[in-house]
Structures are given as structure tokens and as C-alpha cells.
Amino acid sequence: MKEIIIPNEFKNKIIKEFKSNRPSVRSALKFFTNSEAAKRIRQRAKELLEEELKKINDFDEPQNI
Q1: What are the residues whose beta carbons fall under 8 Å from the beta carbon of 11, sequence distance 6 or more?
Q2: pTM of the model
Q3: By C-alpha distance, which of 56, 19, 64 is closest to 37?
Q4: Which has fewest Cβ within 10 Å: 3, 38, 53, 59?
């Protein structure tokens, strides 16, 4: 089963950004819906995950002191 798993913090951010609600975001992230809004929600979830991954990768970079 396809699903994009994100922390509640990200879900809350998406809910505010899209002026949506938790059931709609959940349906989009579980691919139950495939509307344009659901596609945008999934895209935003991926962007938030990529931003988080970049932060983690920055920790691994050697610091030039």
C-alpha cells in the first residue's frame, strides 16, 4: 500500500497552508484521493521531507574551522 509518512508537525503545516483538514490530508497521503489538491498535498509533503533531509545531510558535512 502506498503512503507518504510524515510527522504530525508537517501534517499541521500542510493543513494550515492548504486551509484543509486532517482527514483530507490523511486521504491524500494514503493515496485514497487523487484530485489536484491531493497531488499538491503529496508534493508539499515530499518537499518538507526533502528540506528535513537536507538539514540532516548538513550535519554530515565537515566543518571548516
Answers
A1: 22, 25, 26, 29
A2: 0.85
A3: 19
A4: 59
